[in-house]
Amino acid sequence: MAFGNANQTPYMDQRLEAASYSGDLDMLHSLLREDKLLLHRLSITTTSIDNPLHIAASLGHTEFAEELIIRNPDLASELNSRGLSALHLASAHGHLSIVKQLISKVGSHLCLLKDKDGRLPVHTAAMKGRISILEELISACPESARALTCQKESVLHLAVQFMNSVETLEYLVEKLGVVGGEINDHELLNLKDDKGNTILHHAVARRQLKTVKLLLSKEGMEVNAMNLKGLTALDVLLESPSENGDLMLGEMIRAANGKVSGEVNHQPSMQRNCSGPNPKARPSHKCSPNLSLKTGLQGKV
Fold it and tell me: Tens place of pLDDT for every residue, the chain, 301 residues?
């Protein structure tokens, strides 16, 4: 029954679902011979679950996906219950051939479809470190690479937060430096999410030494940018529990003229010594007793 009660749970023909999971092209053709409109009924009957193209895109069934796209390209624009399109799923799982099929046969506008968090396919690719996918998506739709999520996260934020891959970040920084748009390179590096954190804040919080080193080497990186809590990247390091490598990380930030918020706010003459002659100056993190584990770093100040 193609058109059930409005309160029924949306469904898909079980044989079509099985064929989608296995990538069985012969079964698909057999089903379409039985019902030529089978794929066109899906927009009505599968409004909140994965359609066959979602499944094929996730599992990398290229020929099966291509046949679906040819028969009903509208499937590519449909979102599942998580707000994900077939291009989101193919991008996240690294299925380059399906990404290419979707863009070439349906259109680059698919690159601008948003999930429930406002993430585009390029964002999901960055989260998984899919460099070849990123290259394809950015080439097809350059503006997608500069889009922000609902949390004001850039593609760089997501690459740092979800994928500790300096190669992915390096590719994006280099690539976006030559992609046209309203946001210039320096602004992109220093964009803040909805909590005021730059990618440097996130990299330091996650102790990503290679990523921090890369970011500090970039001209225009604002090492002392503050988040909504008034914390610089160095503050983030000093306020979190000690871990191996903290001293090296702190030295890297200091070498790039990194400061704690107290130093940024104080007059230059008061920045180097929190026990200086001004008793009214707010003490910086260097004087805080709960940072005893950071004494090695404090000695470098």
Answer: 333 333 333 568 899 999 999 999 999 999 999 999 999 887 665 556 899 999 999 999 999 999 999 999 999 999 998 999 999 999 999 999 999 999 999 999 999 999 999 999 999 999 999 999 999 999 999 999 999 999 999 999 999 999 878 999 999 998 887 554 555 667 889 999 999 999 999 999 999 999 999 999 998 899 999 999 999 999 999 998 888 889 999 999 999 999 999 988 764 533 333 333 343 333 344 434 334 435 555 544 4
Helix ranges (DSSP H) in the chain:
14-22, 25-34, 38-45, 52-59, 62-71, 86-93, 96-105, 121-128, 131-140, 155-162, 166-176, 185-190, 199-205, 209-216, 233-239, 246-255, 261-265, 295-298
Superfamily name and number for 12-148: Ankyrin repeat-containing domain (1.25.40.20)
What pTM does this model have? 0.83
